[in-house]
Specification:
With 242 residues, this protein is mainly beta. The protein is built from one helix and 15 strands. It is 6% helix and 71% strand. The strands form two sheets. The chain has a ten-stranded antiparallel barrel. The chain has a two-stranded antiparallel sheet with strand order 11-12. The longest helix is centred in the N-terminal third of the chain and has 14 residues, at 2-15.
Length: 242
């Protein structure tokens, strides 16, 4: 369902007409609901034994502000929380299943960046930004149907975050963008090799995304964002542009 939401964002951006419009806004604050989308995976371990990683989705919160300083140079700040769950199940050759691990995973993330936004057409601009990102990982993992419960509060990871893309304002009340992004702070990496369950906080995360904002009245907008990453991130909320 959430991927249909992302597809709708993409389609909406490119189906609006090219009526008279202004350049995209680079000064705004927004906040709202975040949603994490993960996928199921299966590994075949040999001798008829397989491992299923059954992942669930979770909600969170996101807030961001962007302020233009001078000549297209701007500052950007973002805070988000996220969560998801994952179950690791082994299946033997005669279809017996063993619940290896159940986990709940939470992330708190804060990003500060500086960027440059330059107009390329009357209604479009191209931008790039570089930032620092802080990520606090927390996991609660139960092994073998709860026989062993381990809570892990990982140290906060600090890393580099790069983002660039194109903003487009086809209508005076509609703004969209497409972007690519790389962060050295990845999401959780969950592996089950043989009978060993390992949890890591990742070596990096590369992906892309789309945004769509629609003006409701005055400076008030409805804003949506979708990022295609190791764990996809969706957002919908309210924006105040100025």
């Amino acid at each position: 369902m959430i991927r249909y939401f992302a597809a709708t964002l993409c389609a909406s951006i490119f189906t609006f007409g090219t009526a008279t419009a202004d350049e995209p806004k680079t000064r705004y604050c927004e906040a709202g609901y975040g949603f994490n989308q993960t996928d199921e995976e299966e590994q075949v371990l040999g001798l008829g034994v397989s491992t299923d990683l059954d992942t669930g989705n979770g909600g969170g919160f996101r807030a961001a502000c962007q302020f233009e300083a001078i000549l297209g140079i701007y500052g950007f700040g973002e805070y988000r929380t996220g969560s998801f769950d994952a179950d690791v199940v082994n299946t033997d050759p005669i279809a017996n299943t063993i619940d290896i691990a159940d986990g709940d995973f939470d992330i708190d993330q804060f990003r500060l960046a500086i960027g440059l936004d330059q107009g390329i057409f009357d209604v479009a601009s191209i931008y790039g930004q570089v930032g620092i990102i802080w990520t606090d990982y927390d996991a609660d993992v139960a092994f073998l149907d709860g026989l062993l419960d381990i809570g892990s509060d990982f140290d906060t990871a600090t890393g580099l975050d790069l983002e660039g893309g194109v903003r487009w304002r086809p209508l005076k009340r509609v703004e969209g963008s497409g972007f690519i992004r790389w962060s050295s702070n990845g999401n959780f990496d969950i592996d089950n090799v043989g009978d060993v369950f390992s949890l890591d906080t990742g070596d990096g995360d590369f992906g892309g995304g789309v945004t769509l904002a629609v003006n409701v009245i005055g400076p008030a907008w409805v804003s949506a964002r979708y990022e295609f990453r190791d764990v996809d991130i969706a957002f919908i909320g309210a924006r105040l542009a100025f």
